[in-house]
Amino acid sequence: MWTADSATDRSQADVYRRARPYLTTGYYAALTGGTTSSRWSQEWWDHRAYNKVTLTPHQPEGDLEPETPYAAHREWNLTVVPTGRDGWRGAPLRLTVFTALEKPAPGYPWKVNHVGSGPAS
Asked: Looking at the whole model, is its pTM more than 0.85?
């Protein structure tokens, strides 16, 4: 969801479509429903920019919701650096993201049901 690339993606909608296999149907619909898809800025086009993404586990200060066979929650430190193929670097974005995962039954793969800057509710 964060690996945007102006050389291959026309807009954020392309990024979400690429991430679709890893998202629940409901979360994908929430990400793409009713919003207009914005194109990259001219600066991104000029530098043929992409996002360089780094994830590291975040140790929560409190307890996360208990994990079940069908639901889990994770916290990540996320750093996103817009990077041009010509050496340009944009301002990095650093934040902690809270991710809710779910699966319909044991044996199925986990899928992302929510990503936010606060715990999923």
From this structure: no
